[in-house]
Every structure is written in structure tokens, then in C-alpha cells.
Amino acid sequence: MEEHPPISILLPTTRWNSVCEELSAQLRDKDELLIICDSKSDPIAGQISSLPEQVEILFAGSPKSCSGKANAIATGMEEASHQRLVWTDDDFHHPPDWLSQLHRDYEQNGPVTEIPFFIGKDPLAMLLEPVYAFGGTLGVYIGDIVWGGAVMFDRIEIDEQAFLDDLQRTISDDGVLTEYLDVTPLRRVRTVPIGGSFRQTLERHTRFSQIVHYQDPTAFAVLCLTAVITLIGCLLFPVPALILLTLLYTAIYLFFGVKRWTAILAYPSVLIQLPLLLYGISRTSFVWAGRRYEWRSKFDVDVYEE
User: Fold this and answer.
1) Which residues, in sequence order, are CB contacts of 268 under 8 Å at separation 6+?
2) Side by side, which strands form the sheet with 300-305?
3) What is the pTM of this model?
4) Which of 35, 149, 171, 248 could join 89 in a cystine, given CB atoms 3.0 to 4.6 angstroms apart?
5) DSSP secondary-structure letter at 100?
6) Confidence of residue 2 (pLDDT cuts 50, 70, 90)
7) Sheet holding 112-120, edge to edge
């Protein structure tokens, strides 16, 4: 068995699920899994008396000026026992070697993050898969961006107090961590289901758009300019654009080892990208996990229970 420093895994979730089982089975001596929810009214609170060894439930309370996810991560970091930390989410499969592989990658590269590939569960989300493959998968990989669903780092590698101060007054946990941590993205994707209904997909897309807009205004401007140029090209030269975009996005999918038929939706996906970006940043609020957020600037957030 490989030796590694003890770790604290931070998992925001409100229910005991298969991911909790997967992660608790991978813990080694002195590791801990911190499951972070809002309050004792969350369903997972009923599991306290039957938790596996090395698993603890933390109650973060309701967020006041940040996202529920950011609030949970801040609570987890304050309560974690160890220097080496792992953040993860409960919406993708963690294979039996997931944790040990992250350790090996960390030893070779320092702080590391895996990358997401978003799989749509409704027609609009499926149509947007190529756009997300470009921005949310390829963009994370080439931009050295943290994905909060799978990242390993050590506390000493960030200015922790300044980070926590910023985290508790904004929306994007991984966006803020990217500003504090030099990370190596791995060319290893985790497929994450998204959507389920038209409204859920619009709310998520609004959140994605505003995260880029507020976290990295320059990147957002470049994204919009690229979307404008691509849209014009699609309208002026539809057949060549359809062929080139389909080939390009198929190549992106295959580069990350993803075989999905949705690569053929690249052309219509690109056509709606700019309108949806503008829609996303024009919204005054969005809903995420049962809360409505008004995000007026990077560190100016109001939170309302739905």
C-alpha cells in the first residue's frame, strides 16, 4: 500500500448517496471524509449515528453573502484536520482508484485537478454539450483552471485566510481557488450529468455565464468576441462552417477520450452560444440548489431562500 500524507476530503451534499459510499471505501489510516450540509434538517443528518469510521458530517448554516457551495467549502476547510485537502462533488462516479490516482498525480505535479465533461439530461443541455466541451473542458485544461469537483492541494500552497475571506463573499468556489493556486489540470475527464428540464439548464447556463463574467472579465470579452466571429462565419458560410465545426468538436471530444454523438450538434450549439451568453449576463438573479442569488459584482452577492 502506497504511503501518503493523511488527507481531508470535503464533500458538500445533503444526502447519503453512492458517492459517499465510494469515497468512504477509499479512506486510509488518518484520512477523513467531511460531508458538509446546511443544517440538521437536511436528510443526511439522520445518518450521524451510523456513519462509517473517519466520516463526519458538518453543518455550514445558511450562506449570507456567498453561494451555498462556497459556504460549505469554507466550513470544511476551517474544520479539516489535515494539511492536504481534496475537494469533490457528489454528481459523478469516483472509481475505486480515484483517490490513490490523485495522490500519484500530486506527487508528480504538485496541486492537480481533473476536468469535467458535462452530459445533458434534457434537449437544451444536450444541445449545449459542444459549447461546454470547449469552454468547460478544453478551457479548464489549457487555462490551468481549478475544477472544484476534483482537486487536490496543500494548505501551504495558498494564502488560506485571504482565500477564505474572498470565498465567503462570492459565488464561484473554484474560480476563487484558481486565483490563489497554481494547479496542473490532468487530461482525465469525469462525466457530470446536468440539466433535466429547460429551466434547470437555463439557470445553470446563467450561473456559468456570470461566473466567467465576474471572475475573469477579459476571458469573458474574448469569449464573446469569439462567439460573434464564429456566428458571423456560420451565417455567411453555413456549409463549410458546419463541416469544420463538426470536425473540430469531434476532435475535442476524442482528445479527452469522450465518445458522444452530441459532437454533431456543434453547428447549432455555436449558433445559440452568443444569445445565451447575453441572456445569462442580463439576468438579475439565478437559482442554484434551492436558493436565488443576485450577483451584482465579484464580491457583492445577495442570497434568498426559494
Assistant:
1) 127
2) 286-288, 291-297, 300-305
3) 0.94
4) 149
5) H
6) low
7) 55-59, 32-37, 7-12, 84-88, 150-154, 112-120, 184-194
For 98-121, write each residue's pLDDT tens digit: 999 999 999 999 999 999 999 999
- The C-alpha cell at 82 is 489535515
Task: Please write the tens of the pLDDT for every residue from 155-184.
Answer: 999 999 999 999 999 999 999 999 999 999
3-state DSSP call for residue 288? strand
Distance CA(174)–CA(183), nearest Å, equals 11
144's grid cell: 490551468
Helix (H) or strand (E) holding 241: helix 238-255
The CA dihedral of 75, 81, 86, 88, to the nearest 10 degrees, is -40
Q: How far from 159 is each of 122, 162, 222, 266, CA to CA, in Å?
A: 40, 6, 29, 40
